[in-house]
Write a structure and sequence with these properties.
The complex is a heterodimer of chains A (659) and B (178). Chain A is an alpha/beta fold. Chain A is built from 21 helices and 29 strands. By secondary structure, chain B is of the alpha/beta class. Chain B has a single domain, classed as Rossmann fold. The chains are: A alpha/beta (659), B alpha/beta (178). Chains A and B meet through helix 3 of A and helix 4 and strand 7 of B.
């Protein structure tokens, strides 16, 4: 980009073409006050705090919307400007009821800080004392219109970060209000509770009900870590005070991966499950009773010794860091002498891995998939058997952004429902089990209509792909063949078409379906570098890490083992897992929370929560590596998972060394 | 030279600002050496003599508040507003979001603990104004020390500035609205 030269406050400074005057000022260290501006969101010039004097202009102009150009002479700090800024501030204070002494955000409020900066010790204009509503209708976010300065940050965050467009302005002039949908209460609106509006709000107008009156951010310890829930791998900034987690924010909310979801921002603060507070041992009468850790480890060691080497399987949650997973792998293979090891979500991996292997003919692994950022570049998205709004809401936000920013088309293939109602371009609804026929139908349609875009010879491609095609005719899938042709055309004619698939497809346990999707991308040349524009939604925050370690390579054969060591962490354990456990002779569980699984266990050992866990490595579903950090110190009597494994191994006569 | 005289008044507010004034601790001895405190809720003298500095805490909420603040304004050369109520209106102005009659009914008749309540209407009693206001909406105010309450440090700073012949404006780092 072309460099430009401006004069700011008599100093020559450089900027780039396309910058605003504010961008140049901020990049060069000039402290221009702002309220409505938020880094990464578009600028609208609503608050007028950033007004500057530009030589040749008849009036003062907001720096945030004034395009910088070569030769501009800008003043940022004249007496007139400072007078106008204070005037604007005073008008903002008269417009609504900004009473700091009982405002939740007092101390964290940008409006208040600005008033201090301008030494606003009184307001010269009459107050309007409007009677404004308070909207506490959601269980996480409350909106107090008394505190609103109509800067529009929340409206822009809703549109540009979450791309949900729930918030907007209603009415005009001094009657303007921030409104959800058509004026509904937030709790009755289309709001996803992603909380972006709350984080960007400069005043106390949008605030978290889970964090109020627990402390100012300045009094809190700030820890950057990674979200411990799904596979997206969102970075979190966690605020804690007196060993309590108080508030969770995104470090850079307006960056491409800065969105958080309801679970990441609020769910982690409000976990309804009861902790496993002490080790439990089941006695002769079948009752679980509390014990010391040493007793529980002794009992576990006895069980494992009695069962003998090689007869106990190990299953681990892929929500745990790589270091723990790797030690668990050693524990099962070396200490328990068993090659029966899996993750709770291992089946998904085997379907994906086998599908990729069939595509390649060799085992290249998950690297073939693209990064989640590709979604933002997409002009067509094929969403197969996935419900990102439920399972990976941040991916849902990225999809909505592509629909918004790229005018992308969205084709949903789902046997149950259109997972993006109002947004999807097409919904193909195959009968359950006939997804293969629909996906084959898409490939065939692309070939038949001459839409193949690839360097390979089509004949060669078709030859290699044919064997995964389902011979079930399209008309028996329940999907109109014309719809399949239309979807095929949308997908094949797009420049950057991304395929996203998830649990709904993987639960068919058919790797051919994965191969069919990879073939579709291959057929249409949808490659980004060495990656195909295909992304599977992996269930947990370290699924990829666990799978890369080879923990989930082989399914545990039914009937081969009679005991199970389950490192469950914060997972609750699926129904499928529970029904499998019922057949076991004995069960040892290491878990953070009480669940049906812990109540089935013979021995329960307490596990730390995400906030207490030692630092570790996580790999997001698209292969990014993150470092997690502990936020608070563990609850009394809770040891790190690895420490428990080491102590138990010692009791079994083995030395297990964490790397 | 005679010591400068100070008078203070307490309008619609919680007395927190006066408490904060007493919180300047031993510095109050130094202040007492330098100034003479005349009529004040602290001394309990009711009539304002002619003073150099008048200090007012609280918002203007009733006809009595209006009378007192006018008397003080006439009695002093410099009028200083203490606290968020005097400077901005503060908590008492929350009543402005409701209708005055509705408010009186709620307070004197409909309170859960009141039986056969009625709105006081004696001529002896001051009347509620239509709106509660910051002091400078009623009389001219020369300087402001916001805070709820203003810190003892801010109060001390403002008094010392005045004693040194300057109109105090709190520096940004000393400003606090809560």
């Amino acid at each position: 980009m072309k460099q430009i030269t401006l004069t700011v406050d008599g100093k020559e400074v450089k900027g780039r073409e396309g910058d605003t005057v504010l961008d140049v000022c901020q990049a060069n260290g000039f402290d221009v006050p702002t309220l409505c501006h938020f880094k990464g969101l578009t600028s609208v010039g609503a608050c007028r705090m950033c007004v500057v004097d530009i030589e040749g202009e008849r009036r003062i102009n907001p720096a945030c919307t004034y395009p910088a150009r070569d030769g501009l002479v800008v003043q940022t700090k004249t007496e007139t400007l400072e007078r106008y800024r204070r005037l604007m501030l005073e008008l903002m204070f008269t417009e609504r009821n900004h009473l700091c002494m009982f405002c939740e955000q007092s101390g964290d409020c940008e409006l208040q800080k600005m008033a201090y900066r301008y030494q606003m010790d009184n307001v010269r204009y009459p107050y309007t004392f409007p009677s404004q509503p308070l909207d506490p209708s959601t269980d996480a976010i409350a909106v107090d219109h008394n505190r609103c300065i109509l800067c529009g940050r929340c409206v822009r965050a809703c549109a540009q970060i979450e791309a949900n467009h729930t918030l907007d302005f209603s009415k005009r002039g001094w009657k303007t209000m921030v409104a959800a949908d058509l004026g509904q209460l937030l709790g009755e609106s289309s709001c996803t509770l992603c909380g972006a509006c709350m984080q960007v709000c400069p005043t106390g107008a949008v605030f978290s009900k889970l964090s109020i009156y627990k402390g100012r951010t300045a009094e809190c310890q700030k820890t950057d870590t990674v979200c411990p829930i799904c596979g997206v791998g969102c970075e979190l900034r966690v605020f804690s005070k007196d060993n309590n987690v108080i508030l969770i924010q995104a470090p850079e909310p307006a960056q491409p991966r800065g969105a958080l979801c309801k679970e990441g921002r609020f769910g982690l603060l409000r976990n309804g499950h009861l902790r496993v507070a002490s080790p439990l041992i089941r006695d002769r009468h079948g009752r679980q009773s509390e014990s010391t850790l040493d007793e529980a480890l002794e009992a576990a060691a006895e069980k494992l010794k009695a069962a003998g080497r090689g007869s106990t399987a190990g299953v681990v949650s892929s929500r745990l860091p790589g270091e723990t997973l790797s030690l668990f792998d050693n524990f099962v293979r070396d200490v328990l002498g068993s090659d029966c090891i899996d993750t709770c979500d291992g089946r998904s991996f085997r379907v994906i891995a086998q599908g990729i292997k069939q595509f390649h003919g060799k085992r290249k692994g998950l690297d073939i998939e693209c990064g989640a950022e590709e979604i933002l570049q997409a002009d067509c998205i094929l969403l197969v058997g996935a419900d990102p709004l439920k399972t990976h809401p941040v991916i849902g936000a990225l999809i909505r952004r592509a629909l918004d920013e790229r005018k992308a088309k969205l084709v949903v293939v789902n046997v149950e429902r259109d997972v993006f109602p109002l947004w999807s371009t097409l919904w193909l609804k195959p009968r359950a089990g006939s997804e293969g026929a629909v996906l084959s139908g898409l490939s065939k349609s692309i070939i038949d209509n001459g839409l193949v875009k690839t360097k390979k010879t089509p004949a060669e491609l078709i030859q290699s792909q044919r064997r995964y095609w389902t011979e079930e005719p399209v008309h028996s899938t329940g999907v109109d063949p014309e719809k399949i042709d239309a979807a095929a055309r949308m997908y094949a004619e797009a420049e950057n078409a991304v395929i996203i698939y998830g649990e709904g497809l993987l639960e068919r346990n058919d790797s051919n379906l994965v191969t069919l999707l990879l073939n579709l991308a291959d057929l249409t040349g949808n490659q980004a570098g060495s990656h195909l524009r295909v992304l599977s939604l992996k269930p947990h925050c370290n699924s990829r890490g666990a799978w890369d370690l080879g923990i989930a390579d082989k399914e545990i054969p039914r009937g081969k083992v009679n005991g199970l060591y389950l490192l469950l962490g914060e997972e609750q354990g699926s129904e499928r897992l529970q029904s499998w456990l019922r057949g076991m002779d004995f069960l040892i569980v290491q878990a953070s929370y009480q669940s049906p699984v812990t109540s089935m266990a013979d021995i329960v050992l307490p596990s730390p929560t995400w906030a207490e866990r030692e630092p570790g490595e996580f790999i997001s579903m698209d292969g990014r590596i993150y470092e997690s950090r502990p936020v608070v110190s563990p609850a009394d009597g809770v040891l790190q998972d690895r420490e428990i494994l080491v102590r138990l191994s010692k009791k079994l006569g083995h030395r297990l060394t964490p790397r | 030279m005679a010591k400068p005289k100070i008078a203070t008044a307490w309008l619609a507010g919680c007395a927190g600002c006066h408490m904060s004034f007493l919180d300047i601790d031993e510095a109050i001895i130094e202040v007492a050496k330098l100034v003479e405190i005349t009529a004040s809720p602290i001394t309990d003298f009711k009539e304002f003599p002619a003073v150099d500095v008048g200090i007012v805490e609280g918002a203007v909420n009733t006809t009595d508040n209006v009378e007192v603040v006018h008397k003080l304004r006439h009695a002093c050369k410099i009028l200083m507003a203490w606290g968020d109520c005097a400077c901005f209106g503060g908590i008492p102005t929350m009543r402005n979001m409701f209708d005055k009659n509705e408010l009186l009914r709620r307070a004197f008749v409909e309170t859960e603990s009141t039986a056969k309540g009625r709105i006081p209407s004696s001529d002896e009693l001051p009347r509620l104004l239509d709106q509660c206001k910051p002091v400078h909406n009623v009389v001219k105010v020369d300087c402001f020390v916001p805070g709820c309450p203003p810190s003892a440090k801010a109060i001390h700073y403002a008094l010392v500035e005045l004693l040194n012949g300057r109109i105090p404006v709190l520096p940004a780092e000393m400003m606090k609205f809560d």
